[in-house]
């Protein structure tokens, strides 16, 4: 029986200290905790936390952490529970703490283009507030309606806009964080330039709740970009795709909003599943789907046509089609968006790998070769965000013979992550490490890096109170 | 007599351990240390270091730090010595360590747009290597010929290109750092997306040599931007200038290369000193000097004209002139570049302040009002990089009555930094803290932030070996 289910007198003292300080609204225990708090979208086996804390202010977060610290009860911060690495699942004997009651957009300055939000606001709420003020928030991802800004920051979320605007880190001007002992670290100074000692906010972004609880953030907004131009291009290889990307970025600095690569294995499945007509007379090894965005649609279309024309003359592009309308653009994007149907069409073993850009082509081929050698009939689909060096690979577990899903996953992960380590790549481009990728962290980080991470964790959270056992173990 | 000048037997042992391990070329002591190693451009009183170490490889840096660690001798990393805050000046009993022999551009990939450099390379060498490959390095500053990449990273240097490309942090994909005990932290993985545990490189950027010695870096390059369009515009106030900036950035995402604000106090002196004709029929409270850069000169000029035209209709711009040639553009820039003559024309007390963008106008006025109240005849010139929220203020010490320069500086700093603290600003936008701004660090950082910085410093450098006494004191 896990510790969290044993109602000891110490536990009763702890819960009443919390209730006395935070109020009954902010503390739920036992059956009053909804079961969705027991796990997250990663599918980890559920576990009931000792309590679910729902503070409604930074002062309450601070008080909650102070009490947990005094009682030596670990704290697992939870956002929208949309993480895929198990970073927010309860650990034995821990409380979970969520900021769903701290979801205000506190202020938005459309001229300085800064929004101040509480960490429990959903990504979509921030996007909508930005749009209503004539601005754009630079991060977007599929879970936008559920995921929260605090979780986006804690995982340094990426998603669709990275090639243009960067990840959550690049949007962040100021942060407020509560440390393990309840101290409030106020770093809410929305300045681009501020070289006054260590830039502490960067230590919390991407630390998956292990160093502090993010309570508020000041985020940068972009000017709205109402115009868009879309093209699909066939390229002979990844090197040519990279050169094409460089030419687009040179012609439209800041204007390349998407640069998605689809290998032919992906394209053939996408065509079959969507029933779309073939985009070109013949098959090609790689397709690039690219969007330019900005202020002036005809200028964007002209730039796209000019760059693609030159690239065809240079042999970088074999064939290309420019969307003549938003409807045509949506049609081209349907191919890429078939990934949403992977769970119903495959038993997908999904990878979220990052590599030095120039290495992606060889790496993708080596992956397929290694998988083919072990599993001759494997079905693997490759696509990625080339601008970010992010390769997604999905292997259908059902194409691997008689293995159970877990066995298949383990075998494929061992092959792919081994190649990632050889190539100096990352086992997690944007999903984080959480619980599930811990065994493979060593493929992307050296023992000295891991020792340094542990030293920092020990300095900021000496009792290992915050999200213990996530990302790495302290032992 | 400083410790560094006492040749004790322990010191002799230490020096021979260094010489035996690194070779005589890499270790200089006593009179063999050139006097320029005794101080830096900040004008700090010179102090002879115990030795000057000049390792020629990461392995030698590691060996040097291991020996210093074993002998408990502190190490002051030195770059090009161009810092203005005294971050690289020797401290009593310390050796200085410079990477001037590690100045290779190791590789450059113009397609993936990544350059790998040793930290002793000058900024200019990196810029030139980028240009030769048809690319652009995003950081530029006046000391480019002397300052080194290691120092640029250690201070998170800003300079001229921040509004377009960000600071050194934003250029950095990978780092190699040697820790206080000689461990080598290899973070040379040039990937945009890599969420595998803490992103350690960010902890060293801007830490002014107090957490580790940066030995190599992988830096992002930009596409070359051969075309440029320049305009000078008169605006009624800072809020209008910000709105104009927003409109330019909306029209040309990624294309605004400079957006410099000059208050009339600055403009009048610049006109008198340069002998340039007045740019407009009448005086205006503020002038904006802006550059767009990109691929196509006529497209940039059209965009600039269109945005300025609309802004004039909206009353955001009172008058404007577009440069019709590179010569005219250079003429407009002469006004702004008069700052190079400040040292010969004034006894300048210079400030490098950062503020939330929207607060700059009020803050600049409050500064002048506060200075006028204490020093009715003061001469203060205001200019800044509005896109970065960076305000420069230079007060002529000779306009403050009978005070010595040091007295005048102290009095003016107390007034200005007091206002910075009130406004939630930064006492150092881009110059760092080093030795000279330590007394004012508390104006921009809370006690909790300072305690957190000390905890991190203690975790990574428990003996306080690396650049001790810089940025903050450990006591």
TrEMBL record, chains A, B:
Record carries keyword Zinc: no
Q: What residue ranges carry the coiled-coil annotation?
A: none
Which is an annotated Pfam family here?
Answer: FAD_binding_4
Domain FAD-binding PCMH-type stretches = 45-224
Record keywords: FAD, Flavoprotein
Task: Kindly give the InterPro entries that the UniProt entry links to this protein.
Answer: FAD-bd_oxidored_4_C, FAD-bd_PCMH, FAD-bd_PCMH-like_sf, FAD-bd_PCMH_sub1, FAD-bd_PCMH_sub2, FAD-linked_Oxase-like_C, FAD-oxidored/transferase_4, Oxid_FAD_bind_N
What's the family?
Belongs to the FAD-binding oxidoreductase/transferase type 4 family.
Q: What is this protein called?
A: FAD-binding oxidoreductase
């Amino acid at each position: 029986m896990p510790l969290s289910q044993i109602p000891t007198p110490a536990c009763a003292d702890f819960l009443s200290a919390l209730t006395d300080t935070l109020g009954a609204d902010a503390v739920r225990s036992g059956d009053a905790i909804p079961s969705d708090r027991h796990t997250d979208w990663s599918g980890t086996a559920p576990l009931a936390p000792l309590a679910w804390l729902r503070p409604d202010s930074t002062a309450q977060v601070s008080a909650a952490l102070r009490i947990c610290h005094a009682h030596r009860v670990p704290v697992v911060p939870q956002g929208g529970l949309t993480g895929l690495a198990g970073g927010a699942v309860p650990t034995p004997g821990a409380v979970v703490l969520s900021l769903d009651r701290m979801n205000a957009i506190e202020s938005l300055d459309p001229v300085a283009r800064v929004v101040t939000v509480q960490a429990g606001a959903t990504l979509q709420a921030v996007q909508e507030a930005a749009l209503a003020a004539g601005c754009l928030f630079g991060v977007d991802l599929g879970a936008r309606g559920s995921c929260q800004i605090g979780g986006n920051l804690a995982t340094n979320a990426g998603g669709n806009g990275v090639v243009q605007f960067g990840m959550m880190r690049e949007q962040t001007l100021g942060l407020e964080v509560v440390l393990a002992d309840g101290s409030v670290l106020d770093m809410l100074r929305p300045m681009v330039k501020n070289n006054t000692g260590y830039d502490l906010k960067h230590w919390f972004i991407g630390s998956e709740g292990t160093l502090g609880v993010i309570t508020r953030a000041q985020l940068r907004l972009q000017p709205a970009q109402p115009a868009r131009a879309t093209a699909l291009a066939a390229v002979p290889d990844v090197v040519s795709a990279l050169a094409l990307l460089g030419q687009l970025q040179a012609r439209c600095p800041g204007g390349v909003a998407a640069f998605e690569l689809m290998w032919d294995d992906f394209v053939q499945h996408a065509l079959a599943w969507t029933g779309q007509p073939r985009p070109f007379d013949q098959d090609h090894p790689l397709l690039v789907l690219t969007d330019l965005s900005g202020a002036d649609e005809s200028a964007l279309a002209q730039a796209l046509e000019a760059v693609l024309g030159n690239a065809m003359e240079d042999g970088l592009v074999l064939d290309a089609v420019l969307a003549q309308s938003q409807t045509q653009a949506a049609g081209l994007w349907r191919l890429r968006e078939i990934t949403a149907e992977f769970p119903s069409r495959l038993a997908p073993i999904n990878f979220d790998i990052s590599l030095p850009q120039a290495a992606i082509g060889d790496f993708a081929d080596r992956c397929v070769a290694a998988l083919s050698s072990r599993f001759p009939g494997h079905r693997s689909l490759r696509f990625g965000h080339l601008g970010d060096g992010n390769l997604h690979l999905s292997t259908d577990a059902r194409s691997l013979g008689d293995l159970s899903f877990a066995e298949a996953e383990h075998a494929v992960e061992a092959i792919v992550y081994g190649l990632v380590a050889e190539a100096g790549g990352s086992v997690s481009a944007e999903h984080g490490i959480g619980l599930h990728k811990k065994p493979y962290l060593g493929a992307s980080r050296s023992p000295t890096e891991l020792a340094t991470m542990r030293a920092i964790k020990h300095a900021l959270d000496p009792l290992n109170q915050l999200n213990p056992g996530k990302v790495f173990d302290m032992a």
